[in-house]
Amino acid sequence: MTAKEEKGGARKAGKDILKKLIDESVFNDLHSVRDITKPKYRHALLMLYWLVDFPSYFLIQKSVKKYSIIHCALDDMIPFLEIFSVPYVLWFPFYIGTLLYTMLYDPPAFKRGMHSFMVTFTITKLIFAFLPNGVDLRPDPLPRKNIFIRLVKFLYGSDRSMNCCPSEHVLGSVLAVMMAFDSKKLSDPKVRAGYVIMCTLICLSTFHIKQHSVLDAIACAPLALLAWFLFYRKKKQEEEKKDPETEEEPCLN
């Protein structure tokens, strides 16, 4: 197979995946913002949670004066790599895009995902408010000059290196993957593989641009397990009950 044929095959495979993911009838049904209030889209109101979550994060960041430093020996072994600023920034469209997609195409998965975010992100805000913490890992001065370093400077300037544990970047990425594996609309193996790869890159980015300690990521595990236990375990049990039980054939003596 020639390189041109391989390129054409990859393009066709990409189009096939998009056809499975995108249903234009949804957009035909939504003519204006008011249509989101239709009963079939009433679940979208859960997105109003972010109008509380985002301001509360920055309010806590500004109000905290003293905080504990999070650090472990492994943090010093991980090199600073500015190119990881790209997946770090892609975290925002990664999880928000997952929420918007399931909101339109898979409401049950959206509800479970949003409830997971609401519970776990509320817990992280309480931790930030009552157990403030931070990291002291940022290189000063930055070792190089390039476009990725500029992006790192922007990130450093827009977000203080505090209230990092648990890492919402890591937690949000894991929750997005849980949503992808929960949604029937995102069941394509290639799509789910893409989710796992993107989640991995985002998690690594938090270490390589020195925004988080490894301990910040580890601290997300109990919260992710809590979300699974509250919102996904019951669904799995219900699906297992629906599976037809195989009847044993009688033994003929």
Secondary structure category:
mainly alpha
Euclidean distance between termini CA atoms:
58 Å
Q: Roughly how many Å is the radius of gyration?
A: 22 Å
Strands, count: 2
Fraction of residues in helix:
55-70%
Number of helices: 11
Strand count, sense and closure of the main sheet?
2 strands, parallel
Strand order of the largest sheet: 1-2
Average pLDDT rating: 86
Q: Assess the beta-strand content as a share of residues.
A: under 5%
Instruction: Specify the overall morphology.
Output: globular
Layout of helices and strands:
Layout: H1 3-21, H2 24-29, H3 50-63, E1 68-69, H4 73-77, H5 85-105, H6 107-130, E2 133-134, H7 147-158, H8 168-182, H9 189-208, H10 214-218, H11 220-242
Parallel strand pairs: 1-2
